[in-house]
Write a structure and sequence with these properties.
By secondary structure, this protein is an alpha+beta fold. It has helices at 2-18, 23-27, 50-63, 125-137, and strands spanning 29-37, 45-47, 68-77, 83-94, 100-112, 115-123. The protein has one domain (2-144): Nuclear Transport Factor 2, Chain: A (Roll), CATH 3.10.450.50. It has four helices and six strands; from the N terminus they run H-H-E-E-H-E-E-E-E-H.
Length: 168
């Protein structure tokens, strides 16, 4: 029963996000949380404050107007003291020619006593970067902006970020 309740709540949050309302997502976060979105892009980075999450969601809606999340699968494991949630989503947005952009998103979340403490998001970053490059070519400067991250990003090390290639 608990797992079904968590899944329903998660689907409601994604429905709100698809309707342009990120407040329920912010409300689901624990006082201390970490949201990591993979990729060296304007939507990549690590956020750990509600303010950085608010600014990030505002950017998401500017970069991806009309975005919607189609929940494909949800797996909930564990008890209320440490619930793990795994989701598979389709991230879609309409394009000016009437077609739609679509990307697959996988997330791992950890929830403690009803509040999200960790989110780790993976998607096809090459597909995302092609869309962002296309937007930048059409004058959307934010499509090539630095990540919104209140934690050092990207992590240091060979091949982890731009310009971090080892000497030959």
């Amino acid at each position: 029963m608990y797992h079904a309740i968590v899944e329903r709540k998660l689907k409601r949050v994604f429905a709100h996000l698809s309707a342009g309302d990120f407040q329920p997502m912010l409300d689901s976060l624990a006082p201390r949380f970490r949201y990591r979105f993979e990729g060296d892009s304007p939507i990549g980075g690590v956020r750990s404050s509600r303010e950085s999450m608010r600014v990030w969601w505002e950017r998401m809606y500017r970069l991806f107007p009309g975005l919607a999340f189609e929940v494909r699968d949800v797996v909930v494991a564990g008890g209320p003291w440490r619930t793990r949630i795994f989701t598979q989503l389709d991230f879609v947005k309409p394009l000016p020619d009437g077609t739609r952009y679509a990307n697959v998103v996988m997330q791992r979340m950890v929830m403690r006593w009803g509040r999200i403490t960790e989110i780790h998001t993976l998607e096809d970053t090459q597909r995302c970067m092609r869309l962002l490059a296309w937007q930048a070519e059409r004058g959307k400067a934010e499509a090539v902006a630095a990540a919104i991250s209140d934690v050092p990003w990207p992590p240091q090390g060979a091949f982890l970020g731009a310009g971090q290639v080892p000497a030959a």
